[in-house]
Amino acid sequence: MIRSTVCITEYRNDLVAWLDVDSRMERLSVTVPETDITGNIYVGRIKHVVKNLNACFVEFEKDTLGFLSFNDINEDIRPVEGSELIVQVVKEASKNKEAVLTSKPSISGIFCAATYERPSVNISRKITGDERAALRKAIPKDDECSVTIRTNALFSDDVSLIKDEALALYEKLKGLKELAKTRKAPSLIYQKEPEYVNFIKGLPLDSYERILTDIPEVYENIKDYSCAVLYTDEYPLSKLYSLDTKLEEIMSERIWLKCGGNIVIQYTEAMTVIDVNSAKNISGKDRNENILLINKEAAKQIARQLRLRNISGIIIVDFINMHTGDAKEELIEYIKSCIITDPIRCDYVDMTALGLVEIVRRKIKPPIYEILRK
Question: Between the chain's N and C termini, which has fewer beta carbons within 10 Å?
């Protein structure tokens, strides 16, 4: 019986990809195909240099500016108004903020990601021992690019496949640099792969058993994966996996826990606020133990909701109050263990004197609720 599947289908004109494990959604990506430019690489022109911001604004599409920090500019580039340079979109524009750019473009494969920056070979911290040593020996250092060996390298028995992918990514980046010399800014020189392809690449190879789609065009792009299947049954794929119900949960303000408690998620302009409720009587001699169990289940669900909803920025969580220092420390360590598996950087910051837990999560794309409400 297949327990884990990557599903890709259309939902209200958006492309939805998700990882379904035992009928439970664990990862989610929703994209509006015609507006998704994160990952695209352009020849841009510096329009304004703002020294007090330590940054400049670059026109990367006609009449469209992006924000480029000096920290994200390659060492061999001098930021001067009117000069042209290669930039990549790393964060979409949102509300009154421009898109965020880097002049260190990166391209990902299944096992590696190569970046046009100071040469180095970096290996995922999850790869240790003999495997790490073998990769360090096998993967050559380029003279212009760095490469990062991803955790998926653990699932390949053939190191030469990883080496060949790294070399191919090196050449692809260098080819873009040569292409840029023949283009006038602003100009698109590399259109990223569809988001669902990047979604699959971002998943550990052992986290799914098959990839299922009911869209022929999508299947053509993923058919090189041996586990890819084109779904052709008359019963809709979205109905088969109860997509409507799962997305309703993600749009819901209140999420119920198995223990009987619940969490309430509310969005504000400055931050996301999450309240943990017991929703039942927890009095008695085991009260403190029950509170800790509810808080730990809530922490696990909150980590899942941050991933699914793509909540970012400042997150404040009001857990049920605990009266012992040991219980607070146990909860804090459990929170850290839950958020460390997030594919996007997510950090525990502190617990305030009032017992509020502060978490911060990197923002790359708009939250799911903003995309679905469009």
Answer: N
Inform me whether the pLDDT recorded for 58 exceeds 70.
yes
pLDDT in tens, 285-322: 578 888 999 999 999 999 999 999 999 999 999 999 98
Q: Would you call 310 exposed, middle or buried from its count of C-beta atoms within 10 A (0-12, 13-18, 19+)?
A: buried
3-class DSSP state of 70: helix
Is the peptide bond between 186 and the residue preceding it cis, with omega within 30 degrees of 0? Answer: yes
> What are the chain's domains?
4-35+194-243 (3.30.420), 252-373 (no CATH)
Pairing of strands 55-61, 64-69: antiparallel
* Residue whose tokens read 């509170």: 291
- Helices marked H in the chain — which ranges? 129-138, 159-180, 195-201, 216-222, 237-240, 243-251, 287-309, 325-339, 368-373
What count of other Cβ atoms lies within 10 Å of the Cβ of residue 255?
18
Phi then psi for residue 116, to 5 deg, are: -85, 90
Count other C-beta atoms under 10 Å from residue 12's C-beta.
9
Q: Which amino acid is at 65?
A: L
The pTM for the full model equals: 0.81
In 3-state terms the chain splits into helix, strand, coil percentages (rounded to 5) of: 30, 30, 35
Tokens found for residue 97: 């903020």
DSSP three-state, residue 27: strand
Query: β-strands 313-318, 272-277: how paired?
Result: parallel
Summarised one tens digit per residue, pLDDT across range 154-208 is: 888 889 999 999 999 999 999 999 999 999 999 999 998 888 998 998 888 889 9
What residue type is 310 in one-letter code?
A: N
Predicted local confidence at residue 283, as pLDDT: 56
Which tokens hold the place of 251?
């749009």
Interhelix angle 325-339/287-309, rounded to 10 degrees, is 20
CA distance 102 to 114: 14
- φ, ψ of residue 123 to 5 degrees: the values are -125, 135
